[in-house]
Amino acid sequence: MHLPARRLTAALAGAGLCLATVGALPALATTDSAEIAGAEALADLVTVGDDGGFDLGADGSVLHEVSTTAVAPGLDLTSFQRLEEKGWTSGNILRADLTEPTLSMRVLDSGTTTAPATVLDQVKGSGAVAAVNGNHFDMNFTNAPIFTTVSDGEIINGYSQPYPAFTLTDGVAAVEYLSASGTLTAGDVTHELAGLNRATVPANSIGVYNERWGSASLDRPAGLPGETDVATAVVSGGVVTAVADTAGEPVFPDGGQILLGRGAGARALRALEVAQAVEITVEPSSDVDLGIGGNVPLVLDGALADFPDEPVAARTVLGLTEDGSELIVATVDGRSATARGLTRVEMAELMIDLGAHNAVNIDGGGSTTMVARPAGGTDVELVNVPSDGSQRVVANSLAFFSSADTAKLTDVAVRPVLDGEDAHHVLPGLRRTVEGVGLSEQLAGTDARGRFTVTSPGSLPNGKDANAVVAEQTRTGAVLEGVTPGPATVTFKASGLTGATNLTVLGPLDHVTASTQQIAMEGEGDTATIRLTGHDADGFSAPIEIADVEASVPGGFTIEPAGLDAFTVTATTASGSAVVQLAVAGTVVQVPVTVGLTTKPVTDLADGASWRFEQARASGALTVAQGPDGQPALRLTHDFTTSTATRGSYAVAPAPIPVPGQPQAITMLIDGDATGAWPRLQVRDGDGVVKQLDGPMITWEGWKETTFTVPAGTPFPLTLERVRIMETRSTASYRGDITFTDIRAVVAPDVEQPVAVPVHDPVIVTDGTVDGFAQRIAVMSDAQFVGRAPGSDTVAAARRTLQEIVAEDPDLLVINGDLVDEGAPVDFDLARRVLDEEVGDAVPYLYVPGNHEIMGGSIEEFEAAFGPAQNVVDVDGTRVITLDTSAGSLRAGGLDQIRLLEDSLAEVASDPTLTGVVVFFHHPTEDPLPADASQISDRHEAAALDALLGDFRARSGKSVAAVNAHVGAFHARSFEGVSNVVNGNSGKSPASTPDKGGFTGWTLLGVDPAEGVVGANPVPVTDRLQWLRAEVHARVDSLVLDVPAELALGETAVVTGTVTQDGGRQVPVAWPMSADWSGEGVTIAPASGTELEGGASVLRLNPATGELTAVGSGTATVRLTVNGVTEEVTVTVPEAEVPECETPGHAPTTPPGGSGGNAKALERGLGRPPWGCGA
């Protein structure tokens, strides 16, 4: 479309800069509703993954999360988050089509320029559909806008100094320098006016103020208290009514003005006389209809402008495309873990990437605010996350309006009432509430009444074969119920219009999680909110609505519904505890709740002389000292200059110190030295597992109370073993000196800790092997040996593991990090020697760096010894990707490797010869242990990585798995159809209890490329497990099989196996350990089955439950194999004595052995009892 030029240039005289963006807008015209943008059917009001046409990856950023929604005809909102080299950026973009005749803009404020209000308050009741914060302003003083502002052709604030501004004139948009100045004429004398409603009047100048100024004092504009010469003159109806030598709070006559002068300007005003006629004019430098000024131009003619840079902050910028037809309003958030903010230069580069040819920077930082009314909505909502934590009151805002009709129904849509992408998921037997949404020409929500139907591929509307059904409906909403896994389309028809959205019915409910594991309230009347999420066995999630929940809590607390998916728990007592019980379809979730917190002493350090000093790669001393009030204290001095590896200085208690109660946290006074050292408390939990409670880095000097939070779910009681001062930064070198005292526990009333129901992902084989899979990949990790001790137990353990792996003859070995402990050259030399001697050329291997591979060094030293830290290898249809989290996250290893991952996944998606991907990196995205100490440190990165892999499976229809280590325990989970296997330690002592994966060993993955393509609608669990399973090989020093030597016919006993390893650790043979159960005369029931199969001549064994049932007389052998070690037990089942029947044809009512296990065996359908006397 040709856009005739109206104004080709708009330049500040003498500045030599042209900032115009040219483009004319067509005249306003009556437009049929069908022509209005957005009038076509909207399948989903918010489109996840739609980048709005913006190139958000032009800067090389990764892990994009983006969505776009229409706001009004000609106005769209795109929200994004992305990971850049320097951190996360979160932003929002309004794209305004300035050729849309129904779209307009105005500058809004609270009614006066010096009464700031939030952007939401400014637009309230105005009819605006979107807005952003406006001018910089005189914050904390007059609050008046700084720079010229024009709206509807009226100057609101005018400054004689020109500044870059966004302007509109007769529909033509530009970025130009804008100012406003005027004259005061009294008789034949004319004085220059420096502007209108200015926050400050320049020295020796005159400014004019009107009623739009408000009630703010004129002292600051007058330069008081520094200015010594000030005068004011009040003008009403073009006549001077008062002249004074003061400023102060203004009192404006109706339609009048106040002139304010400083220095020479004040002297000019004193020359005026009461009743003297004057003429005041103030005009903008350009005849604009709208103008809003900024401080600097960021983009000129498609390139970076010349401006001083500034540190990162939240920012708001207005940009125009080259033809002037589109306004791009961009905000970025700041000062948070997921939004660092941008420098001016970075923001300018972003605007260029977004398509801005010219752009101006307006107020940012805590002022940055964007609000919008999304399509289908009725109210304007906050879109961004203000960096102050809440909306800042600001001087004004740039608001968008739509003149399109708000009442006429032009379209309909349907959506879940709950927010969030997972709201489009529903579990079988549970409900999802949807609502029909009417859309006006303006895309505002309007009344629509119709009917809802559900269809699935191949089914009729509301047919019995649909994956979901309409359980109940009104004319505006419906409750759907999931039936069988698969897609379901929900359609809403009203007034001849149709809208639809897609839902997914997940696999059967596997487990339920609560939004909080524990609630601790301070006092009576306090409240907390609980939401529930249901998960299927593939790790897909869906919010659970309260209508599917039975909730209860004992006295002292109440629980009440709070919306569609939440409960509010209220404390009705000042001190107490209870357990909230929430039941969903037979699955129960328990959440402990307490009210009232007290502090109790842990130790007064009176025995300080008995504490001892220990260290890791450091030297130092522990001495008794005094606290700030003279109480006993301990002083730790340490020299952290002798190594670049992780160093530690420890104060070790003479005996473990019991910590009272069930603490929420432990506090301690620390006299800091501002070195940035990391304080940690070593405790042992109720399961006997050593845990570290983390405190903040010591960045302060002097005494300060420091809090060490106890993770929710920690088994009690706790004992305190040592205070640790750590230094993990290889670049930090210093001598430290800290003192600590007053160790106390923050204790809530004791509460019965619910026993967590473990989630045992079936990707780990518990009965059988992966020998039948086409590919096998061995995984070992966390041996953590040092080169200076080649004969150590950890080296021997590593050698033994490698020997076992070589004996299995896998296709590939992946060493998934922490083979060595300190990353020293001597460590790598020993690692190479061990691998050469134990593996050689027998098995190809990839070595993935863990945190201990760079302990005290850099990744370059590892790469010099073992090659690239990242690898991409294709193994007969399966792509293997290894990545580097040695510094705690993928981001810390450089964005190149995340790009490598994204690009490699894209390649697999389009390559028909590749059917699946296995990704290896050391740190898991989610730590299965309560302390959460071993997961990727950047939690948003972790979530984005999970989403990336889940999205790959959903979009490509191909399989993917992630394999990690580092935790010190074997574990597995699934998320969004992705199997996630965590390998435990292959040498170092584990970090969990034996029954929770805390044993040593290695993992053998079985992969079948022929099963990798799962398509758009995979069969829950089955398709995932047919492609990949994990066989966990525990190290076995000895194996005991506990089976009774004799069972009565029909009797059931529990069979157990126990592995002993590493000098006495006893590990139950159960998930996550793999085993192979077999025997003669024994039927092995499927480990995943709930019904036992018949047909065994003597015994039936269910490895999932350990139940062994005698089903026939004779002798059988039960055999258990773990990692190549086999034990077997012979079991005899004597023939049952057949009782004589008192009445022929009638069997005894109770079989031999009574009504216990035999009766239960009958209930399970073992067949006709051999002792019966049937007719």
Strand line-up in the sheet with most strands: 1-2-3-4-23-22-24-20-21
Largest sheet: 9 strands, antiparallel
CATH class of the largest domain: Alpha Beta
Count of DSSP helices? 10
DSSP E strands, number:
77
Terminal CA distance: 96 Å
**What is the 3D form?**
globular
Classified in CATH, the superfamily of the largest domain is Metallo-dependent phosphatases
CATH architecture of the largest domain: 4-Layer Sandwich
Mean pLDDT: 91
Structural domain tally: 7
Rg over C-alpha atoms, rounded to the nearest angstrom: 36 Å
Beta-strand percent range: 35-45%
Helix content: under 10%
**Can you tell me the residue ranges where pLDDT is under 50 for at least 5 consecutive residues?**
1-43, 1087-1094, 1147-1175
Backbone structural class: mainly beta
| CATH-defined fold name of the largest domain | Purple Acid Phosphatase, chain A, domain 2
Pfam family, one: Metallophos
Protein name: Calcineurin-like phosphoesterase family protein
Region (Disordered): 1139-1175
InterPro entries: Calcineurin-like_PHP (IPR004843), Metallo-depent_PP-like (IPR029052), NAGPA (IPR018711)
